[in-house]
Amino acid sequence: MAEILLSEAEKAFIHHGVQDDLRCDGRTRLDYRPIILETGLVSNASGSSRLRLANSDVLVGVKVELASPLSEKPLEGRLEFFVDCSANATPKFEGRGGEDLANEICRFLQMSYMSGDTINLAELSVLTGQQCWVLYVDILILECGGNLYDTVSLAVKSALYTTQIPSIKVATMDGDQPELELSEDPYDTKRLNTQNVPCLVTLMKIGNHYLVDPTPEEECCSSSGVVVAVSGTKKITAVRKIGSGSLHPESLVSMLKTASEVGTVVNKILMNKLLEEERAGKTQKVGFMR
Amino acid sequence: MDMLTSKIFLRKTKRGKVLKVVREHYLRDDLWCGSDLCKKCNQENSEVLDDAPISSSTLCACPHYVVVDTNVVLHQIDVLESPAWKNVIVLQTVLEETRKRSTNNFKKLKEIMATRKDSFYVFVNEHHKDTYVERKPGESANDRNDRAIRKACSWYQTHLEESQQGREKKKKVQIILLTQDFKNREQALKEGIPAYRVDEYVKSLKDFPDLQEKLAASHSDDNAENREPLFPEHWAPTRIMTGIKSGKLLQGIFHCSRENFLEGSVSVEGQDKSILLQGHASLNRAVDGDIVAVELLPEDKWTSPSGIVLEDQEDQDPGDQIEKEEALLTNSTKGKDLQPTGKIVGIIRRKWRQYCGILLPSVLAEGTRHLFVPAERKIPKIRIETRQAATLSSQKIIVAIDSWPRTSRYPLGHFVRALGNIGDKDTENEVKLTVLLLEHDVPHHSFPETVLACLPSMPWMISQEEVNCREDLRNLDICSVDPPGCTDIDDALHFRELSPNLYEIGVHIADVSHFVRPDTALDKEAANRGTTVYLVDRRIDMVPELLSSNLCSLRPDQERLAFSVIWEVTPNAEIKKTRFTKSVIRSRRAYTYAEAQCSIDDPLQQNELAKSLRGLNKLAKIMKKNRMEKGALQLSSPEIRFEVSTETNDPIDVISKPMLDTNSMVEEFMLLANISVAEHIFKHFPECAVLRRHPVPPESNFEPFLKAGKTQGFTLDVSSNKSLAASLDAAVKPDNVYMNTMLRILATRCMMQAVYFSSGTVAQVDFYHYGLAAPIYTHFTSPIRRYADLLVHRLLAVAISADVTYAELLDRKCVQQLCNNLNYRHKMSQYAQRSSVALHTHLFFRHRVQDEDAYVLSVRQNALQVLIPKYGLEGSIYLKEKDEDSKSAFIYNPDEPSQTCDNITIRTFDRIVVQVSLDSKYVQHQKIAVHLVQPQIAGLSVEPIKTVNVSEPTPKKLKSGN
């Protein structure tokens, strides 16, 4: 993650703040910063969202395409993640600078979606063993303002929520060749059930305490933390430790517990907001011209 | 108001990917309504719609503007051509839908709108901020378009209402929607828009009672639903597509048999043998030229073409019944020469156009349903509805096909227009000519102003700058050799001795590309026409006459621009050097073939030109010999010329075109020039050179030819063009001199069509020209009359850096498209030429009955096909009249094939005597009748008549044969 130069005094100040449950921006340890979310702003994509968590800015587009399913999972479609770190975010991302981070996020997202509880991939099957939908989730990181994992996961979930999968019929089967027929009505689409899609919650350990939604400065003060994927059913689908420091098993258990609670709340709020947006219907798009 | 919206739709690509396509769609508030009465729009003098339109409709007496729905344009386009239509609003929605559904109708509509700018107004409703509608969930594209049309109508209503508030209610202009769609009409009425069916409306136009004749047959014929279907169903398009993909079905072009209307074939690309179809059910409503899907029958059901000649001879309207066809299709040769047989299961694309022909005399003259007989034999009769049968029965008319429902024996169509009276002597020829040109799609309108504007102004002189950048060949003794009466001279020759062992010969071609510059109106017109069409009594030019007969024509003693090919050759016709140059020449003399022949033969003529001609002739003979040794074919097709009376314009005699040495001399040098140029342009433009190839015919094509040879006891070798040429030369019978010519005629018919192509689209091995035995060939020598030559000129000019190039010339796709058009035009012009000859043959025989020598071309089960060499005429002698059972008992032997009666046997190539006359039982449908004179067979042959002339004495006795 983007390194920030911080003096010892500043670090100590942050440390003490966390101890007193009052962070530099006035939050308690389990408070999130404000989130701005807009969906459906990329008209060419099948589903899209842009999420801004304080200074972290992520744009996600989902494209659906027909492909043949993997031979080991003939009944399922699949999700493919791709993260692109824009050099706009930080000069370090220039060239192949962002690749490591991108791969890291990508891999963790893939892992957290692997559990059968999160998303029903069988919904993406078109024709058993022959054709299925593949959702290409393209994530563009535009700005790094800390807590990238959470930002990305919320944006991905929102984009998946709005994704419209064209309805397709198998018109005729002739020998081995299926003939697929695309519905002529562009509104004739189906949506994925994204209720249980996991949110990632990052917990950073600073001193003896841990906190959610760290700012870049706080990330700098912490030596270790965990990223936990929490599904809508409160289940933890993936865990990953970050930072070079160590964690005591006891604190790890308590961190996981907290993360699962926080994750469930975040999940719920996000779903409510998405529903609210959908109910509002078609409104003027805001995009980046705010 | 948001002026930017986007249109989103999904599309499946060929490779099975699903694409989401998003198009930005901008709306405007400055699109005007086009009405004269409107006070709100800022339009300037562009009002099309009248302030106070006059209604001639009894259906809607108040003044009104008409909005047409897409289905009106799609199904009733011919009605819209009438001047009855005034104040018509064409919505963009309608235009776009039409373009998507039928390019033909779209083109027609565009033409109508262009010619009648004062009556048709295009309202761009899709971009108007108040009339644009977005597709709703669950709404089909069609419904959305209907809604858009209704929205535009109601917008007009309210928009105009505001400008005419002071008017009396009766004088207020209304908007009327014409639509054939029941649902749309109902919905419109609900929304307060007066809506009518187009036939209702047209019938109510009291000033134009004739217009309703042009209404296309309504598809919802009430009692048609109840009738028993006569034909099998056509498959749904998706089913056909999957069938073709999986190889179960074959896609090809349907050709109806010339001889038997119940038989046809489908030529499938990449397959040697075409697929045979027999009977109504198998043909399944296909019309000649349609692209169809065919299902092959299992091999045990394959048959061979029946030998009989069958015409759909109902002189009476049989109604919607299919006659028992087993009797018509009796097939005696089952088990032999089986051909893949199939049946049509669906039609992929109709190639319907307008057909010219006559009405069948009907029993019920006052009835409205009549049968139309097209002039082309391959097109089925068409059922039309008209009230003017009495007046139309003596006219040539044009009819379009609308549909062919399963319940109908014949396709349904409608009357488009009458061409003129056939019986009328003054107009007859003119009408027949128009018909002929229309039938063959020959563009024959006079050149428009825009084209004429591209011509150089007269008097025209070659400028000094032009001379400077060309080679000056005015000092050379150049002459041209052409047929008599030729005014478009595009080639000239010269010959001179450089040293005793080195000659220089030159071919000089009119430099048409100097006058016809790319991308001008003139160029486009020429590209469309493709070729000059030579008919018996006139010529339809590709470029305006000023060019074709004057500025480009290499007239004697006038300085002309030319494109020259100059070779240095040894006396053995070995080419030492070839060069190409743009030049200025002055031809010394324009010879005819006969004059040139005289000069060569007359030893007293010792001038430069005569010497040159002799030199050229000597070289040409050597070159021809070399070419023949390589395997070039000498084929034959009967060519004749009419001697036309100067007063009546009627043909008075027929002469076959003589073949002189000089003919082949000129031909030889033209071939040489073409080959040299082809090599050169291909070297410089391997991707986009315009070349000409003549594909090697598949062996199966030669079957009738081989069979005919066998009857005469010749084994013919068709494995290569060389062996074919050799066996043709060997096949000579001293007692039947014409036999060899006949064989050559038959061989010609086995050949493929030579075609133009762009070199980038075909593998180099396929460049071969079979007939000429040349590995590469093109056309360079007649740019005045062929557009392909013009393209070749341009390429060559670029190759020798005498001209600049342009984008389309180097794009092989563009070039191939041009070539496709040229091939089509070329083919059509040949057909037109043949029809023109046939037409004059009819005129010739109008007052004559003559006995002539004839040869049997082929022997069929119930007929003899004979060729009368003197007129190049072909005809059938039917051996069994339908009503006579067994009076003339001919026994058909399909193996030979031969027909035997008593002790007389008739075989292929036998010489017989026939009587030729014009069968004018129907004034409209005249045809040449051929009757047998010798050998005499009771009940079939007729009495010999020696040159009987009905109205005028013949000046001389006509000699038969040649």
TrEMBL record, chain A:
Entry keyword annotation includes Cytoplasm: yes
Domain Exoribonuclease phosphorolytic: 32-166, 196-261
CDD domains per the UniProt record, alphabetical: RNase_PH_RRP42
Keyword ATP-binding: no
GO MF terms held by the record: mRNA 3'-UTR AU-rich region binding
GO biological process, one term: exonucleolytic trimming to generate mature 3'-end of 5.8S rRNA from tricistronic rRNA transcript (SSU-rRNA, 5.8S rRNA, LSU-rRNA)
Pfam families (UniProt xref): RNase_PH, RNase_PH_C
Keyword annotations from UniProtKB, A to Z: Cytoplasm, Exosome
InterPro entries: ExoRNase_PH_dom1, ExoRNase_PH_dom2, ExoRNase_PH_dom2_sf, Exosome_comp_Rrp42_subfam, PNPase/RNase_PH_dom_sf, Ribosomal_Su5_D2-typ_SF
Gene3D superfamilies, sorted: GHMP Kinase, N-terminal domain
Family: Belongs to the RNase PH family.
Stated name of the protein: Ribosomal RNA-processing protein 42
Organism, scientific name: Daphnia magna
From TrEMBL, chain B:
Compartments in which it is found: Nucleus
Keyword Nuclease annotated: yes
InterPro entries per the UniProt record, alphabetical: Dis3_CSD2 (IPR041505), NA-bd_OB-fold (IPR012340), PIN-like_dom_sf (IPR029060), PIN_dom (IPR002716), RNase_II/R (IPR001900), RNase_II/R_CS (IPR022966), RNR_Ribonuclease (IPR050180), Rrp44_CSD1 (IPR033771)
Broad class of where this protein is predominantly found: nucleus
Keyword field: Exonuclease, Exosome, Hydrolase, Nuclease, Nucleus, RNA-binding, rRNA processing
Domain PIN: 64-186
Domain of life: Eukaryota
UniProt xrefs under SUPFAM superfamilies: Nucleic acid-binding proteins, PIN domain-like
Domain RNB: from-to ranges: 470-802
The keyword Nucleus belongs to this UniProt entry's keyword annotation: yes
Pfam families in the cross-refs: OB_Dis3 (PF17849), PIN_4 (PF13638), RNB (PF00773), Rrp44_CSD1 (PF17216), Rrp44_S1 (PF17215)
Family of this protein: Belongs to the RNR ribonuclease family.
UniProt-recorded name of the protein: Exosome complex exonuclease RRP44
Organism this protein belongs to: Daphnia magna
Phylogenetic lineage: Eukaryota, Metazoa, Ecdysozoa, Arthropoda, Crustacea
